[in-house]
Amino acid sequence: SKPVELEQLLKCLPSRSSAKDSAESQPNPGAVLSLPTLIDPRYVPRLSKLAQKSVQLGCHKQFVKIYRDTRSSTLELTLKQLGVEYVTAEEVQTAQAESRDAKITHWIRCLQIAVKLLFPSERALCDQIFEGKHAWKDHCFAAATSKSLLNLLSFGQAISKSKTSPDKVFLLLDMFDRTLELQSEVEAVFAGDECAENRKSASTLVKCLAQAAKKTLIDFKDSIVKESPKNTSTDGDVHPLTSYVGNYIKYLMDYQSSLKLIFQESSNGDGTKSGLVSEISGLIHAVETNLDVKAKQYKDHALGILFLMNNINYIVRSIRSSEAKDLVGDDWIQRRRRTVQQHATQYKRVAWGKVLDCLSAQGLTSSVGSATEGIAGSVGSIGSHSSTTSTSVIKARLELSFNAMCTLLCLFW
Length: 413
What we know:
- InterPro entries: Cullin_repeat-like_dom_sf, Exo70, Exo70_C.
- Belongs to the EXO70 family.
- Component of the exocyst complex.
- One of its GO terms (molecular function) is phosphatidylinositol-4,5-bisphosphate binding.
- This is Exocyst subunit Exo70 family protein.
- By secondary structure, this protein is mainly α.
- It folds into 2 domains: about 5-220, no CATH class; about 225-345, no CATH class.
- It has 18 helices and no strands.
- It has helices at about 5-10, 20-25, 45-55, 60-80, 90-95, 95-130, 135-160, 170-180, 185-190, 195-225, 240-250, 255-265, 275-295, 300-320, 325-330, 330-355, 360-365, 390-410.
- Helix 6 runs antiparallel to helix 7 (about 135-160).
- The longest helix is centred in the N-terminal third of the chain and has 33 residues, at about 95-130.
């Protein structure tokens, strides 16, 4: 037995019709694949006769052991040539992000080759050599493929156990999608009691990837709430965290069907909210909670209101422009739009109130407030606070304060 060459494996896959398909390396799931030749066809009948002869001679156990050990090591070599070896979570953790992403893409490709070509070929070979002896062929096939399958799945397990980060969820979802797509083929090729452990190993990986994706989103939600309130923009503009989460939710919608499968187990099943809706709402609520804390850091109350208005408005626009709008519903969007309008009204009231304060008697005789700082600079104390304030001082204060507040109002409106 010799390991199957990569060139032969690629020839067994259906041709791809576009450059994009080629780049993604995704074979057509509906295409009929030609299985690679593992052993020269001339020797298959001879091996079958030898298997029958071993029974007559009472040495069938030795024959079975030699066959399974030989095929097991050969299959391992084939996968090793493809770049598949046993991997630990520590090894994955130390890899650079770009290297890790490339390895995930390659792993998905190898998983497809193994499930669609290599394992079915091993099954077919066992069926031919041990024809009529179901217990033997199932045992040999399970034993010949078990170690290679574990080596193949170890990378997926390592990724699922490695340190979490918000962007990692998309890699996990890609892996979850591909393993789930292949699950029916795995069940078919590893049918029978002898292959029960192989089927269990494959299904366990699907569950681990789902749990890792779920945990990543939950951890991200918690990190949003805990994000430092000191990291606040000085001009009331949209915060980077708000724009990041808005885009994050948009990208999540590309995996909507997978996420619904992942979160359906955590749903209460009361018909009010699905698990995915609850998670998306939770992410948004975490951002809103964090924004409320950040808004309170502004010394200028009007600027804090403006900050909330801009950021909540950004969230609403992000949700409305993505498929998430169908999940959260029109009522949710309308409530948030009313909140934005309320902040806008409050901002105008507070900001214009400062302008009107400049015209009051107290405003004319007080020193210029902190709101004018950064626009006209500090003017110090002009004149006296006594009732003998001169007309020129009043004009100076009025011009400085009133114009400064109007400028400040227009800057952010």
